[in-house]
Amino acid sequence: GLHMASHAAALSINAFAYIYARRHAHDPQFSFGTGKVNALGGYSGAVLLAVFAAMMAVESVARLIAPVAIAFNQAIFVAVIGLVVNGLSMVILNHRDDHHHDREYSDSHARRPHLHRHPDHNLHSAYLHVLADALTSFLAIFALLAGKLLGLNWMDPMMGIVGAVLVARWSIGLLRSTSHVLLDRQAPAYIRQKVVDAIEKNGDNRVVDLHLWAVGPDIQAAIVVVTTAAPRPPDYYKQLIPSNLNVVHVTIEVNPEQLS
Questions:
Q1: DSSP letters of the chain?
Q2: Would you state the pLDDT for residue 15?
Q3: Residue 85: what pLDDT?
Q4: What is the predicted pLDDT for the residue at 193?
Q5: 227-249: per-residue pLDDT in tens?
Q6: Residue 4 in this model has a pLDDT that exceeds 60
Q7: Per-residue pLDDT tens over the stretch 25-72
């Protein structure tokens, strides 16, 4: 019951994040749109995944120390139903990952070819939750059959520990990726280098400062400081940035080069 309650809470957070982001997509109070609501929903889901993993580990260790009676037939029946339902949910969410939110956070910007994909952390969080459910159902079936047919009742809590370790690993990975977005971590070096190369290959332009970070799934913002002997309007330099980088918010500062 606690297991299912944790997932119901996490998926409710994911749903709320999408609703909130859609309603406030054009709210001028959000400087860069509501794309980070997506990462915040994913981060919250990752925290609940970590709590779920800890609960699994504690309960499993307790049952290794003090075994309890197992209603094998009823437990196997419920676990099979859970595996089927979560398997179907995984298929649905996996397909949605390729099509969801094409215009959710960037309705005012044309879609562009992808070079570097920023995942939908909120959707990924929901996917990991149903994946965790499917995994625990599968491990439960395996352990329950071993207990019923071979008398290996200890397999039930042991598989709980294995499941807890795997869920904890997923949680850590999702916490790391979503926190990078929430804390405005710089885009990968090779992406930043593409921006620098695109600007510096034209004339005597030189990029002296660059900040490039994700503000939502597949969209980035950039602040670029350029020095040049022949300054041009900022829009000129904006057009030099490759369109497939999906940089939708760009601030350009142009300074004349100081000649010695």
A1: -HHHHHHHHHHHHHHHHHHHHHHTTT-TTSTT-SHHHHHHHHHHHHHHHHHHHHHHHHHHHHHHHS-----HHHHHHHHHHHHHHHHHHHHHHHHHHHHTTSSSS-TTS-----SSPPP-HHHHHHHHHHHHHHHHHHHHHHHHHHHHHH--TTHHHHHHHHHHHHHHHHHHHHHHHHHHHHTTPBPPHHHHHHHHHHHHTSTT-EEEEEEEEEEETTEEEEEEEEEESS---HHHHHHHS-GGG-EEEEEEEEEE----
A2: 87
A3: 87
A4: 94
A5: 998 899 999 999 999 988 889 89
A6: yes
A7: 888 888 888 889 988 988 998 898 898 889 889 999 999 999 888 888
What are the backbone dihedrals phi and psi of residue 215, each rounded to the nearest 5 degrees, phi first? -120, 10
Tell me phi and psi for residue 174, to 5 degrees: -70, -40
**Residue 147 in tokens:** 């207990």
Do residues 209 and 190 touch, judged by C-beta distance below 8 A? no
- Residue-level length of the chain: 260
Residues 224-244 as b/e (b if ≥16 CB within 10 A, e otherwise) read bebbbeeeeeeebbeebbeee
Nearest to 116 by CA among 13, 242, 250: 242
CA angle 91, 93, 98 (to 5 degrees): 105
Measured CA to CA in angstroms, residue 213 lies from 21, 77, 79, 90, 101 at distances of 19, 48, 43, 30, 19
Token pair belonging to 121: 């952390």
